[in-house]
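Whiteboard transcription, Tuesday session. T.W. wrote the structure tokens on the left side:
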């Protein structure tokens, strides 16, 4: 498996809990390098654009509202098989279904406030990294 990049967002709930460092440490311990990083307060338009694929879903408005409810930390992570490595670290979308020891099992409260975003494919990772880092 080649070296890949993936987009990670530490969502407002996890930033508010003051666990940015703990989450970044998990990435580093798994061999992922943080090659881009920034704090951001997303605008409604930025959050809607980022999650445009979910625009027709019933939870879309709540998702956007949550993502703009406070600052986030956005990173590009690089490493072997980075997309899947990050998805494995994150755990299932619903923290109640996330495997023990995953980020969502340890830091997330609910399917809405679930601590982290991670790209679900190399193709989407390239689009998402360009969306926030412009390259
Ligand atoms: P993922 O973040 O695990 O890739 P997606 O299906 O891409 O999950 O959904 C994007 C985000 O939308 C989730 O992380 C979660 O915050 C929110 N979401 C997904 N499904 C639901 C739902 O059924 N109710 C409320 N929020 C949801």
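and on the right, the sequence the group agreed on:
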């Amino acid at each position: 498996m080649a070296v890949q990049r993936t987009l990670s967002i530490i969502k407002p709930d996890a930033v508010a809990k003051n666990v940015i460092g703990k989450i970044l440490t998990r990435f580093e311990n798994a061999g992922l390098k943080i090659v881009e990083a920034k704090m951001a307060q997303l605008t409604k338009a930025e959050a809607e654009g980022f999650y445009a694929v979910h625009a027709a879903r019933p939870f879309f408005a709540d998702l956007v509202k949550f993502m703009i409810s406070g600052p986030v930390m956005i990173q590009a992570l690089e490493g072997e098989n980075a997309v899947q490595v990050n998805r494995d670290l994150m755990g299932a979308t619903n923290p109640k279904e996330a495997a023990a020891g995953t980020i969502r099992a340890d830091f997330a409260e609910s399917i809405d406030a679930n601590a982290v975003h991670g790209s679900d494919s190399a193709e989407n990772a390239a689009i998402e990294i360009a969306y926030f880092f412009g390259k």
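Someone added at the bottom: The pocket of inosine-5'-diphosphate is lined by residues 54, 59, 63, 93, 111-112, 114, 117, 120 (CB under 6 Å).
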